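STRUCTURE REQUEST FORM
Protein name: Diacylglycerol kinase
Source organism: Perca flavescens
Requested output: structure tokens
Priority: standard
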Amino acid sequence: MLAKDTTVNSKPLSALVLPEIVHGELGADVCPLLVFVNPKSGGLKGRELLYGFRKLLNPHQVFDITNGGPLAGLHTFRDLPRFRVLVCGGDGTTGWVLGVLEAIRHKLVCREPPIGIVPLGTGNDLARVLRWGPGYSGEDPHHILVSVDEADEVLMDRWTILLDAQDLSEDGKDNGFLEPPKIVQMSNYFGLGIDAELSLDFHQAREDDPDKFTSRFHNKGVYVKVGLQKISYSRSLHKELQLQVDAQDVPLPNIEGLIFLNIPSWGSGADLWGSEVDGRHGKPSIDDSLLEVVGVTGVVHMGQVQSGLRSGIRIAQGNYIRLTLSKPIPVQVDGEPWIQPPGHIIISAAGPKVRMLRKSKQKQKKSAAGSKDGRSESPSPRGGGH
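Status: completed
Returned output:
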């Protein structure tokens, strides 16, 4: 519950009054559900889900993630021996929850709560891989709860990306740091070059006029328009960076974009790696501790991949990546783009694998009364604040 908004040292500050869960009153077989909803995702659908879940569940277990972020909900559930998490939002919202969970894992009794997704907005590649679909289309929240209750637990790799911006001289030697190293976490993919530039242009257009970006149809239209403007684009990315995979130098073909995949879905459901068996690479999996390294030759190639006509250019598989950038290059992590200065980038495994919920293929047989995530087995709140 949001109690107060104020400003301290010109920075916004929100105070939240949180419930206290009397976990001793819960049965041993009860697995409560913690729900995060991003009401700003998917137009008004996020807001509809927020209200819908608060009607079905104890309102104290449904959190508006824009008020205080994921920390408030995870803190409330910190003493429970087991619980599940449902994230209603885009892949960025899911990554936000995973990042906070990783940071405070040591303070939770249940250190690895499995996470399910109700996809909102566009993209939603992680939700697609976990069978939650490309986007929420008005499904009854009660049916969603049943699906969460019946979902299978699976493991997924997470990756740490160290972005070490340095001033590189013409001979490749480091002249000193431009800024301290930056560390980000990745769940889906990391891209450099043309795909990141398209994402950057799209984000800029959305920031300039956010009121227009309220539907998946409009968002895709803007993305297509941005792509058409880049058809003749050429920067010869292979000349601007060096790649090492598992301590081995890897020559790059003539490409405009380089993507590192953790999941077999990219660009709103496209299979960038492809299904062909080539004898040199293993079949990709979300828990194999490997990244797939793929190249694209430009916007036309990307369009062909997204249409299912082609796949990307397979370059390598590995679990320790080192990149050296000689020029500023657009990059994106799970859809969040920026311009990365020259320097080094290192990608490595980010500690333990995370537990995710994958929607079951089996026909749903359980009734509403049998769902462990229903109101009848909601955690009992006590009105104390923290």
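Reviewer notes: The radius of gyration is 22 Å. The chain has a mean pLDDT of 84.
Form closed.
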